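Lab notes, practical 5.
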Amino acid sequence: MRKPNRNVHALACNALTIALPAIAFTFVTIAGVSAGTEKTLHSFCNENNCGDGDTPRNGLVMDAAGNLYGTTEFGGKHNEGLVYKLIPNAGHTKYTEHILKSFCAKPGCTDGAYPDSELIMDMDGNIYGTTEVGGKHGGGEVFRMKPVTNGWTFAVIHSFCAHPPGCSDGDTPYGGLAYAGQTTGAPWNETSSLFGTTSLGGGPDKGTVYSLTPGASGWSYQVLHVFNPSGNPDSVYPGPLVVDASGDVVGVTYYGAANGAGALYRLASGSWTEDTLHNFCADASCSDGANGLGRLAIDANGNIFGVTLAGGSGSHCPESNGCGVAFERTASGHYKVIYDFCSKTNCKDGLEPSAGLTMDASGNLYGVTHIGGKGNLGVVFLLGSGGGWPESVLYAFCSQTNCTDGAGPAAPVIMDDTGNVYGTTAEDGANGSGGTAYRLAP
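Output from the prediction step:
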């Protein structure tokens, strides 16, 4: 059963928070380039009224012990989403779910509701995330959870829409949090700024880019950029961010910009001046892609990689607006499509890449598509580096009877040092339509 999307970003709950088997929680290397033996670690909606969670559209993070952490957008005690932990047994053959937080536990959902982004982790093992709504002003929040004896403490560190009407400080955070050094494998250092985006607010109500900086007297919040379609023209519906080696913030937008199909942009560190790196849909057929979404990957040379949900020129694409692309924007400024989805018969290579890209140390790129594949319910794919970016499908969902393995992945994968690949699906599973957490073994 397919769930309706809550907003334009529902396919793009795209964490690229990847786990090392130590206390570093970002990009890692895997030994092989194929994975295919699937194990469902948890099927959500296992309890009455989905008390264990429903619709995990976001990715996973892993700690040193191999525990997995994530969020579901719905379900939980109040049906407003939750934070969960999956604990493996000694042989990692079985995982047990523990609920760490059910949202909307306070009147007016001042503790937040609908966690719709990835989690990050700091050097002390604290986790951070955002919710789309709730908080003190109803416009969403940034939260922190700390592990303590026999549980976790929860705190809201920022509530959005403190300045209605218009919410000039931003409204409805989207895409989670980013920080300098994240792409190197380091956890957040607890002193540098965190960066994020909001889908709405900022005056024109088209979203913002913001920073949160910890200090001795608390957290300092600053709006760095307000998206405004009437100026330049600017973009709207900003996606997740990544911080490059220079401290610049880079992201994509879904709509707006010069051709109405979004843009790849950069905000220069310090001045936070916006520079449009590429306007999508640069030709009449949008062969360069349209509707950017998902977090970007950046290699050591400063080349930027990402995806668009639509556009492209896949030879077997059944959609009039295209089936999506993977792209590269080189450090020297050259933009090119490196893969057109639906290039294979019946879209067995996937269509609608929905979660951005993850890069390993060898330069290979991993991602998921929301639909397409053998069962037309999504795939995990690999784009191999070394020339030509050939695509391999690592797994096609709904390969099991009644889709007990899940369907509709919308979150990026993570990898451990043994080559196992982990992720979530937003739909189906053993309990109907609640989604799954899964592992692919090489």
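Observations recorded by the TA: The chain has no helices and 29 strands. Residues 281-410 form one domain.
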